[in-house]
Amino acid sequence: MNALLEKLRPVAQNTWRIVVGFTFFTHGGQKLFSWFGGTAVDYFSLRGVAGGLECFGGIAIVLGLRTQYVAFVLSGQMAVAYWYQHVGGGGLWHWENGGELAAVYCMTFLVMSVVGGGDFSLDGVMKKRSDT
User: Fold this and answer.
1) What is the pTM of this model?
2) For the chain, what is the domain count?
3) Residue 108: domain span
């Protein structure tokens, strides 16, 4: 069983990265362009900056481009969002403030900043080219 799971690790890691990146991208698309049922915000507001990070950071995560650096920044963004938007507006605990998604994204991106984008990412392609 462990050997099978180890063979599936690259597929799982890359699928995880792509799904998380795409869902994060959609949050930015909602804020910046009114896509996916959202409402556009002022680009130069705090929500506009968040939308830019979500939209373009999500694309970078999907592509696996500088995944560890981008994921670290996005983890920080979600930590700030949790404390600023959720704790500041509704209490410390996620069941009080509705901040589950921000907390999960924060930790997901923190882990991604450690494990990287995987073999099937632009980072993986660039690494293979530099190794040859």
Assistant:
1) 0.91
2) 1
3) 2-131
